[in-house]
Structure formats: structure tokens, C-alpha cells
Amino acid sequence: MRKSILAGASGIALALALSACATSANNSGGGGGSAPTVEESGTSPKLTDCTNKMKNDAPQVSVWGWYPNMANVVDNFNAAHTDVQICWNNVGQGQDEYTKVQTAISAKKGLPGVVMLEADHLSSYTIQDALVDLVPYGANDVKGNFSEGAWKDVSQGDKVFGIPVDGGPMALIYRTDVFEKYGITTPPKTWAEYAEDAAKVKAAGGPVFGDLGSNVPAAFMALQIQKGAVPFGYDINDPQSLTVRLNDQASKDVLNYWADLANKGLVGKQDQFTTDYISGVVNGKYATYTSAAWAPGYLTGAGVGKGQSKGVWGVAPLPQWDEAAPVSVNWGGSTFAVTTQATDKKLAAIVAKGIYADPTSLEEGWKKQIIFPLNQTVLKSAEFADNKSEFFSGQQANKEVYLPAEAAYKGVTYAPITTYYYAQFQAVLAKINSGKTTGDEAADELQANIVKYAESQGFKVTQ
């Protein structure tokens, strides 16, 4: 039996389908260990609407992807392969792409063979039988290229639904000039120290210390996980059962912490990734930015690190709740997944495993601060570890901060209702910012909303 889900985010409603059986004949397969042989019939058709030009006459696999240097990545792959060629299109990123993905799933046609997806959205599509389990197609052959946490993010039980490419180990970016001016000699190591430093800077007439942006629910989920929260429990082998725990004490503690900072005027309430927010970052309105390893690339592309905001940035490990028991968390990260609409899944899997995996593409990616790669061949290289970041004024950010954070990250279990959950989380964060609710009340409201929604879609919910 199938039931429809309406998943809203950024004002866009998507129709999702819950399947009583989350696997199909096309994506069923074995568990860990060596991959079984898969026989494929048919040949991928020649595609005529490709953005790129082919390097040879090999069968083609269509790909949707949005990386800034995607054109070069595709050319690098095609030049190295005589067995398959990529036909690439950029149909947008984030919600723009997901809308097109969902439309094609609902229509049962129109999906490419390989699609770029963020790791936290994989479950939303596997439950609709839209993605192929890659284990029978050699996923475990490349498992060793990634850390435990990165692999867990793309895995559900003994199945693998995406090949990791980049990630977002979180850290604390800060203004060295602001810290120096207000006598903060070392970045805060704990969240208690963060609050103390925020109060110190405010008392001296300085800027707000950070920001409680309601439009970054994924970041706040990560911060709750750092405190010990486990928002969801989900097993693809029991796809209509879902554990929802969004109002446990750890989740409430984090929301109360940030609500208290916001109410005291110690952090701002501006939505992030907006023109006003970036202007504030450039002009020194915020002393810190709690963000991920992709942030330097994003900030650079947005004009930060130039002019008056050049040479004033440093990065430190993410503050901890318990310095003696540090927890690393992740915000963001992309994968390449094979869709069940792929004409030739074996060839599509070759693409998913090989795209953005060659040394040239990976080097170009991180050297231009586009991505934080998850491939261990890069992460273990001396060149990457010892790199002196231009954005951070020569600081060896990878060695000092991001590499240890990525290595310590253990992965997360995401729910198949991620889009709806993020939209509801965003709504309660906005209510905190407006002073209409406390952290406790926001967590209870979010729990009630998500449980009610999940049960209305046919899930058996455990709280």
C-alpha cells in the first residue's frame, strides 16, 4: 500500500510516496563483503541534450549534478573511460533539483541514471524505490576510500545508496581582529566559554558573537546530535517504522542555549545565506560563524575575505559540551546515487563510483575551496593536510581542525521525512527568534508535529 506525503521546504510542497516495501527487484542485493555479479541487459541510449561533449562513442549515462567545476569533472571522467560516457546536465541545486527529482519519481520517468543528492535526503528517495542499492554493483570495492562516518551517512543497514563525495565537518570560524580587540586570547573550547566570551564582547560594545539563523535547521540538528540527541531511528528493512525523539533533554538543552543567547542579544537572528547576512559578515557584525568545512569556499564565492574582511579569519575546533568527551558533527555533504530509472544500472554504478574520484578532479575541487573531499586518498595526503589556507591567512586549517573533525565523525541515521522535518524545525526556530516560544516549548511542538505527520503517512512511530 502506498500513501502520499506532502513535504514542504522553502514554500515548496513535494508529493512523496511511502512504500510498504523499500526495496525492489532492481535494487535488492547482498550485504557486506565482495559484491555479487550483476547481469545487465540493454544499452544506455545516446542522449542528445548533454551540456558536455563526448570523448568517444561508448554508451552514455545521464547525470544531474551541480558542483561549480562539474564541467571539468565530467570531462576528466569521460577522457579516462572507453566503457561509458557521462551526459551531464545541471538542473539546479538544493530544492530546485529536488523538485525535479520528485516530479520524475511521481511520473515514473524523467530521472537521470545518476543524480547528485545530499546525504540527508537519501532516505526520502530510497523509501520510494527511487534509488538502487549499490552493493551488488561494487560499492564495497570503494568503501575503503571513506571514513566510517561518511560511509554510514550513505548506508541503510547492509545497503548503500550513494557514493560520498564531499562533507561538512563543523568548526568555529572566527574574526581574529574582533577577538584581539576584545581580549579573547583563545577561541572558546566549550559552549560555556562561548557564552562567556559573547557576554564579554557585548559588554564592551562589540558585535554579536554569532547567529541563530532559522533557515539552517540541519546545522541545529547537528548541534543537538553533538549534545547527545538521536533525532531519528530508521531501518530500511522495517520501512514503515520510525523512531522520533526531538524533545529529549539534549535537544531541549541546545535550543534553550541558543534561545538564551538570542534573548540576551549575544547572537543575531538573521537568516543565513542572505545578502544582509553576508554584508554583516563582511562588515564585522558577527564575531564567529559556526559552520562546516565547505564554508570558506562559500564565503569566498560570496565576497568574504576580500577588502576589509581579508586576513581577519581563523578557524578552531567546534566548541564542546564536555571537553573531556568531544563529539564531532557534520553539516552537509553530497553523494552520487543511481536511480531505479537508469537504463543500464551497471554502467550507472561505474559513473557513481568514478565521478569526482579521479586525482585531477579532487585536487581542483579542494584547491579552489569548492568542496571538502571525503576520499581518503586526498585526506591522507601531505599536500592536503599541510595546505596553508589563503582564506585563513596561512593557517593549516585542514591539519588543525577539519581533518580531525572528519576522522572523528561517526555518521547519522536520517529519516525518510527529512524535507518536512527541516521545514517544521525552521518554523520553530523562527518562533524562538521572535520570542514566541522557549527552547523547551519549541522542542515539544516539533516532536508533536513530526509524530502526527509521520503517523498520518502510515508510519508506526516510537517515541
TrEMBL record:
Keyword tRNA-binding: no
Signal peptide positions (record): 1-24
SUPFAM superfamilies (alphabetical): Periplasmic binding protein-like II
Gene3D superfamilies in alphabetical order: Periplasmic binding protein-like II
Keywords: Signal
Amino acid composition bias (Polar residues), ranges on this chain: 40-50
Name of the featured protein: Sugar ABC transporter substrate-binding protein
Annotated stretches, region: Disordered: 28-50
PROSITE patterns (UniProt xref): PROKAR_LIPOPROTEIN
Annotated source species: Microlunatus spumicola
